[in-house]
Amino acid sequence: MKNRTNAAVALLIFLIILASLFTGGCTEQSSILSTENGTGTTEETNSNEGSSTGYLKTEAVNLSSLETENSSLAGNYRLEALDIDLKTPQYDLPLEESEISNYEEFSQRFLTDEEALDKLKENGFVAISNPYNPEEDDITAMYSRLENEGQLIFITSDTLLHLYHIQFDDSMSQVERNELYDLLWELDKALLDASVEEYNSASGEGKEAARRNAAYFSVALSLLQPEDEQIKKVKDPYSPEAGKYFDPAAKEIYQFEIPAFVKDDVDAELALINSHKGFSYSPIFLYKEDYSQYVPRGHYTNSEILKNYFKAFMWHGRMSMLLKGKLIEAEDPEKEARIQTIQASLITSQLENNLDLLQKWDRIYTITAFYVGISDDLGPYEYIEAMETVFGNESKNFNTTTIEDLKIELAGYRSPEIYGGTGSGTHGPILTAEQADELLEDTKGFRLMGQRFIPDSYIFFHLTGPYTKEYTGNLEHVPFTYIDSEYGNNRGFPRGLDTMALLGSERAVYWLNELNDSSYKNYSIQYNKLDSEFSNFSTAEWNRNLYWSWLYSLRPLLKDHGSGYPTFMQTDAWQDKELSTSLASWTELRHDTILYAKQSYGIEESLPVFEDKPAGYVEPVPEFYNRLLALTRMTESGLEEMDALDEDSRWKFKSLEKTLEKLIEISEKELENEELTEEDKVYISKFGEIIQSSVNVDEEARKTTLIADVHTEPNNEQVLEEGTGYVDMLIVAFTTPDGRIFLAAGPVMSHYEFKQPMSDRLTDEGWREMLKANPPERPEWVSTYRA
Predict the structure, then answer these.
(1) Which residues contact 476 (CB under 8 A, 6 or more apart)?
(2) DSSP sequence for 451-493
(3) Pair 519, 658 in one domain
(4) pLDDT tens, 239-279?
(5) Does the predicted TM-score (pTM) go above 0.85?
(6) Helix, strand, or coil (residue 103)
(7) Which residues form the domain of 478?
(8) Comparing C-alpha atoms, which of 557, 561, 607, 615 is closest to residue 586?
(9) What does the alpha-carbon distance between residue 23 and residue 42 come to, in Å, rounded to a whole number?
(10) Could you tell me if 502 and 613 lie in one domain?
(11) Domain tally for the chain?
């Protein structure tokens, strides 16, 4: 595999690829212990997250090769050391009502259902439909209601994960709207003008390549350009509508003309994009593209500016200028592939020869790579390096001979690691891992802003390939969909459980087995390969960018909590609850990054007095709060270093950091069986007010009802949807240092997983309508803890 060797490439990698210091916190059965090593960084001991040496390679796949371990931003992930002696008082299960100090007052309000009471007694906790508002979608609201009624409060990990999602999503949408939209417009406009000039001066295949580039950039600019109905004058810059519409001045600013010589192709391409129908042949690129992907989703439906940005960036992220002709439907596919390679070379040359344009590309890529990671497709810097090898210092003459030499050179570069649907259905049956690798090789080419490599899509691709099933030969072939001969069901769809299992959840493994979702030919072989690879990642590799670090923050929630933790946390049902919490948070991550992630186809007042009673309880997961704190600091400092953090976002991140610091402090005391101070008790009782003041975003941004499609199955034209629903109430029985048992309540997220027609990929608005009218079933494991 080719390595980037020239100085420009090395500098880019140094600036954009995120790794981190070796950090962590080891957990033993009765203690949590982290130590500082001699280099001033924190490392985990007795953990499977040690130094990564000798990754498992499945058919030349090596995740670590996608990103380097050195970065100017490496120090942004810093994890404080924890040293906790676990000795929380225990109680026996099942619980008796007489053992609970506040049972009467609490049960009359929240435990009138017999099933809920039985689950509370059995597990020491229970989740119920929100008694204040069954359709509540603001996770902060319950705390204030509980405080007003004088009920004990349980501060949940769900709340903090949702708060981080809000800050992550808000900061991303701010920088997209305020900076990246304009940068993308300027980049596309300049490259369109250059393509027109090249078309007017070139001949032969070079002229045709320039013509298609003019069409390519005209499509992008057409998608970015505001329509009349998207323009609205908003007088108050602080109103909810500010930033949602284009200003009237935009009509003059964002102007361009589609060249007459490409107008028919551009109109045909735009018609397909706006139809959202699914797979059709691209008029410009002559291979099949999934046009259902261009439906704006995630936070991009909240702003007309972001809707257009979504469609244009999706175009740049998905459309590839292929090296090979195998997926192209034409009279002479190899000629078409040669023209597409010339297209990529012309674009690359424009960027290489124009520092301003290259800096614009770098700026867009740097910021988005910080959030989501790098692309597994080839891009400008790989083509710059390859052209230097082929042409040296000579002028670049893109004729049949030199382009073939360039294609041979680029053939030695890495292939994509995730199949993203390019040319679906136009290649032969995929029955083996080798054939899957061949398909990935066939999709190799140039993407201007390729969608980003994410570990969960990598998992899905390798666990749902047809070579993990028994092929019966009774289906018309479409890749990655076969009927299993033993069970007769389709594992073409992955499950969120697959990701959670490989993040370390033994309970997810249990449910995969229980639900017969691991009983497929070769599934265990593929799973074990992935498990070996993921378990060898160092903490630096887990924190290479915000996407990976978010997943890393979930891992402490997924472990088996042993002796020394509260009794309710030692149950299988609690593992199921934390599994749902982690799946809901992962869903929010996919929702926030849906544009960039490569989808597999695969206050001063009188204070309360607590006369010898608690104010409530903090979910005692300090490892989790510690990792989320490190992630929050990494987000803030990384954006600040790139000058991509506004004052409002900075304040919000600082506020979340203070909250997490306090929760670490309180949860450490709980695990060590220390009495909480009056200040701690006030903090718990006023938690709703504290976080309400820090979540300074509009009502839409606070909602928990979000949806993201995470995998596409072409054969039956369906997608896998992951959704978060209304806020439930969680009731837990906790002990005070003197051994008394109390009940406390707090909000938890809900999670859904279901299939949906790919022609109707759900937006948040569509999902909310479904939740009200006809919600899907909850996952099976919810029944162990929810009444």
Answers:
(1) none
(2) PBP-HHHHHHHHHHSGGGS---S-S---TT--B-TTT--BTTS
(3) no
(4) 777 778 999 999 999 999 999 999 999 999 999 999 998 89
(5) yes
(6) helix
(7) 457-485+495-526
(8) 557
(9) 4
(10) no
(11) 2
